[in-house]
């Protein structure tokens, strides 16, 4: 469905939690990707230019890893800004989902992986309340992405 399942209060607390992460968008985005590539090495296969990188240190120094980390965080930030407007939210999520499904052919389970890592990092840095308030947002994002994948025939 196109309606968002978050109350106004939930939207506000999710935004507050996300803002703390987004202050260091590049560093935190990079940390999330490094953790994903390290804990789920198969995810690296989608990024041809990251393939040869094995050490976290090497990835941390890579402009490409940093650039993509920042890109992921910017996209989520756009979604977070539109949590109270399902039309605008879907306007961001839909093309992103389509691109990952049709052009990049990324397995949709990887969205859940990356969202879970973001939640982990949030909890480590800012505690369980931050994680809890953002969990609904990641569920919302993953649900919509999965719906787009289904429409694209996955």
UniProtKB/TrEMBL annotation:
The Globin domain, residue ranges: 5-150
InterPro entries: Globin (IPR000971), Globin-like_sf (IPR009050), Globin/Proto (IPR012292), Globin_lamprey/hagfish (IPR013314)
EC class: oxidoreductase
GO MF annotations in UniProt: heme binding; iron ion binding; oxygen binding; oxygen carrier activity; superoxide dismutase activity
Enzyme Commission code(s) on record: 1.15.1.1
Top-level division of the source organism's lineage: Eukaryota
Pfam families assigned to the protein according to its UniProt record, in alphabetical order: Globin
Reaction(s) catalysed by this chain's protein: Fe(II)-heme b-[protein] + nitric oxide + O2 = Fe(III)-heme b-[protein] + nitrate; Fe(III)-heme b-[protein] + nitric oxide + H2O = Fe(II)-heme b-[protein] + nitrite + 2 H(+); H2O2 + AH2 = A + 2 H2O; 2 superoxide + 2 H(+) = H2O2 + O2
Entry keywords, A to Z: Heme, Iron, Metal-binding, Oxygen transport, Transport
The family this protein is said to belong to: Belongs to the globin family.
Described purpose of this protein according to its UniProt entry: Involved in oxygen transport from the lung to the various peripheral tissues.
Name under which the protein is recorded: superoxide dismutase
Lineage: Eukaryota, Metazoa, Chordata, Craniata, Vertebrata
């Amino acid at each position: 469905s196109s309606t968002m399942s978050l109350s106004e209060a939930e939207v506000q607390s999710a935004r507050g939690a996300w803002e703390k992460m987004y202050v260091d968008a590049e560093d935190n985005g990079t940390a999330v990707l490094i953790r994903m590539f390290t804990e789920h090495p198969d995810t690296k296969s989608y990024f041809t230019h990251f393939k040869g990188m094995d050490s976290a240190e090497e990835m941390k120094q890579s402009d490409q890893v940093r650039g993509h980390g920042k890109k992921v965080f910017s996209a989520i930030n756009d979604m977070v800004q539109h949590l109270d407007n399902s039309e605008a939210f879907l306007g961001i999520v839909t093309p992103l989902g389509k691109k990952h499904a049709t052009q990049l052919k990324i397995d949709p389970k990887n969205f859940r992986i990356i969202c879970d890592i973001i939640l982990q990092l949030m909890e480590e840095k800012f505690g369980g309340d931050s994680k809890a308030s953002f969990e609904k947002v990641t569920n919302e994002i993953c649900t919509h992405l999965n719906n787009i994948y289904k429409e694209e025939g996955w």
